[in-house]
Write a structure and sequence with these properties.
about 60 residues; about 0% strand; about 65% helix
Length: about 60
């Protein structure tokens, strides 16, 4: 497998890289735009769940 990865141009350092532990990572900064985006995604998820529940109730009754 290493030979196959080497043909993709990956060096030894890239092949040996590992994800840092959570303790060494900084906490991400939440900007107003990011908060708005996450709130929008939560809203969409909530609407989808409500629509599924409505559809289940319609089909059962």
């Amino acid at each position: 497998m290493l030979d196959e990865l080497a043909t993709w141009g990956l060096g030894e350092e890239q092949l040996a890289w590992r994800t840092p532990t959570l303790e060494t990572l900084e906490k991400p900064q939440f900007s107003l735009l990011r908060k708005a985006g996450l709130l929008t995604l939560r809203g969409c998820l909530l609407v989808a769940v409500i629509l599924v529940i409505v559809k289940i109730v319609q089909m059962s009754g």
